[in-house]
Amino acid sequence: MEYKIISSAVGSLPHRETRKAIDLVTEVFSEAPFWPQLPKRDFREGMYIQYCEGFPGAVLDREKQRLFFSMDGNFASAKEKFLEALMQDDLESFKMGADYAEGFYAFLEVYKAVLPPMVKGHITGPISLGLTLTDEHNRAILYNPEFEEIITNGLMMKARWQARKLLEVCPQAIIFIDEPYLASFGSAFISLERDQVIQAISLISEAIKSEGAKSGAHCCGNTDWTLLMEAGVDLINFDAVAYAESMTLYVEKLRTFLENGGSLAWGIVPNSEAVRAETTESAVKRFWDGIQALEAKGIPRDLLLASAWITPCCGAGSMQEADAEKMIRLSNEAAEAIQQELR
To answer: Is residue 1 in a domain?
Structure first.
């Protein structure tokens, strides 16, 4: 059986110069380059602000570099306009502006002239966005029905808009739904039902697929991975540095997920100063250790290797540039080394 190991990264980079970030991506990743999110260039590129542009009630506090939601002011008229755009399927009303996503537009410009096998995008998921951002009463907006409806529908439209733009430059695209807050699911910090979580993520996944792209999901902590399997995503990106063993708890559903065409993206390179001591060999060993652990639980190696991805364990937005660049390069070098071993 022939295997294809794909390398990419989660999304955020610490670079303040967009061109430098784009050059890194294009140099390192040939199979599935990603557009870089650059929160140090502009706080509006942070994952909890970037996708809220144009949402009714979203208030940008430039002095404190934060965003919150409020029903004061022109909320009613803004919501009416939002719902009208939604009903008319006006995707352009949900686009990301260049001030919020300079890396995205620079990426599109580069890949008009270069045709990789696939391009990778990302969007913050409704659970994490809704539990991080608050309303004017400091309550998570996911628990406010007015704002919960806005972020769910708004993210669906923004995901579709992004998918459509990516597919204009490449015939294959995948967009990852970033859900770090799933690491807290089941704890006292989140009062959400399982079906509510699955449905919210599924809506974004289905929106992405409706445009002809694939959907992925990323969580950088330990979680119940069957949430994402049942949400219908095509690819699950997990932190295999700290939580590789967590996948062994869900082998039956994981096997079904893989047999139905799903894939795992192994985050085998740390996104911290620990990367300074990391080598290609140590990252590759981490991957094979994880494969062997799942194989020992009854999942065939062929199934695990059929379409595996290699990535860092999480984003690099808060790292030092030199560490982030090493992390990015190690991910690709590890993928190439694994691919070589499989030949």
So the answer is: no
CATH number of residue 175's parent domain: 3.20.20.210
191: containing domain: 6-342
Question: CA angle 200-183-177, nearest 5°?
Answer: 40
CA angle 241, 51, 44 (to 5 degrees): 85
Does some domain include residue 237? yes
Does some domain include residue 66?
A: yes
Tally the domains of the chain: 1
Q: Given the DSSP bridges, would you call strands 235-239 and 58-61 parallel, antiparallel or unpaired?
A: unpaired
Q: Which residue has the higher pLDDT, 186 or 102?
A: 102
Q: What angle do CA 169, 92, 211 make, to 5 degrees?
A: 50
Q: Which residues contact 328 (CB under 8 A, 6 or more apart)?
A: 9, 13, 24, 25, 28, 312, 316
The per-residue pLDDT for 188 is 61
Query: Tell me, what DSSP letter sits at residue 246?
Result: G
Contacts of 92 (CB under 8 A, 6+ apart): 161
Dist CA 227 CA 313 (whole Å): 19
Q: Which pTM value belongs to this model?
A: 0.96
Query: Mean pLDDT throughout 114-131?
Result: 96
